[in-house]
Amino acid sequence: MLDAVAALCLLAGAFFCLVAAIGVVRLPDLFTRMHAASKAGTFGVGLTMLGVAVWSADAGPVTRALATVAFLVLTAPVGAHLLGRAAYRDGVPLWERTVVDEKAAEAPSLPRTPPAAPRPRRSAGKPGPAR
Amino acid sequence: MSGSGTLLGTVATASLGIVALAIALTLVRLVRGPHFADRVVAVDLLATLAVAFLGVFAVGVDQPVLIDVGLALALVSFVATVAFARFIERRQPTHTEADRA
Questions:
Q1: What CA–CA distance (Å, rounded) separates B53 from B47?
Q2: Is the pLDDT of residue B5 over 80?
Q3: Phi, psi (rounded to 5 degrees) for B77
Q4: Contact at 8 Å (CB) between B61 and B2?
Q5: What residues does each domain of chain B span?
Q6: Residue in B with minimal Cα distance to A22
Q7: B22, A14: Cβ pair inside 8 Å?
Q8: This prediction's pTM
Q9: Would the CA dihedral through A15, A17, A20, A24 be positive or negative?
Q10: Helix/strand/coil (H/E/C) assignment for every residue in chain A
Q11: What is the CATH number of domain B7-100?
Q12: Looking at chain A, which residue has its C-alpha nearest residue B64?
């Protein structure tokens, strides 16, 4: 019985890993790709490690597997947010069918990066250290 | 694979194949880019998928020790992502022109 549950978790986790990879290859711009990588990827690995925890059924491995899941769930949004902000400030182009760009209203000095335009500098308004 | 006759052994082998396919697809994005940040996303997902691969492999070869490797890899990959994000935010703009082509 437990084996069946573990097998189901492993297969579902592997499936979501595949969904994340397909999303990273197929989606049109960096930010949509990041959404596939961080959500589907984390969910897939979480399910897989849950399956591993059910399979091992032993205090040590279960703790480690669940710790891995907890750590991934805690860090994936942080990493994705940092990377997304850095990429946006670096002038990574948005998909041309993007509907809402809230940062554009927030910092109007950042251009929307048409291909030929000069790169936007680091954000206006952030006092960061002088280079 | 020790338990290839059992249900769990078969499932572990199949899942291993699926995750390997996912890793191969992620490598496509790693090669294609086009922006540096796209590659960082691919590397991040690659590390995450490696954790899943190690978990499935631990079931396949009946070695729970491999879970520790996955935990360490998850810890390190987060630091790598943060470092890359800071690098993208702070680097000199001259480095991006080749990436942008």
A1: 10
A2: no
A3: -70, -30
A4: yes
A5: 7-100
A6: B25
A7: yes
A8: 0.80
A9: negative
A10: CHHHHHHHHHHHHHHHHHHHHHHHHHCCCHHHHHHHHHHHHHHHHHHHHHHHHHHHCCHHHHHHHHHHHHHHHHHHHHHHHHHHHHHHHCCCCCCCCCCCCHHHHHCCCCCCCCCCCCCCCCCCCCCCCCC
A11: 1.10.287
A12: A61
- ipTM score: 0.83
Cα A93 to Cα B14: distance, rounded to the nearest angstrom: 38
One-letter amino acid for residue A19 of the chain: V
Interface of B with A in 34-73 (CB under 8 A): 35, 37-38, 40-42, 44-45, 48-49, 51-52, 55-56, 58-59, 64, 67-68, 70-71
- Tens digit of each residue's pLDDT (9 = 90 or more) over A61-106: 999 999 999 999 999 999 999 998 888 888 788 888 878 777 776 6
CA dihedral of A26, A28, A32, A37, whole degrees rounded to 10: 30
Per-residue confidence band for B1, with pLDDT thresholds at 50, 70 and 90: low
A77 contacts in chain B (CB < 8 Å): none
A117 touches chain B (CB under 8 A): no
Question: Residue B69: exposed, middle, or buried by beta-carbon count in 10 A (0-12, 13-18, 19+)?
Answer: middle
Q: Is the bond leading into B34 cis (omega within 30 degrees of zero)?
A: yes
Q: Are A49 and A73 in contact (CB under 8 A)?
A: no
Q: Do B7 and A14 touch (CB under 8 A)?
A: no
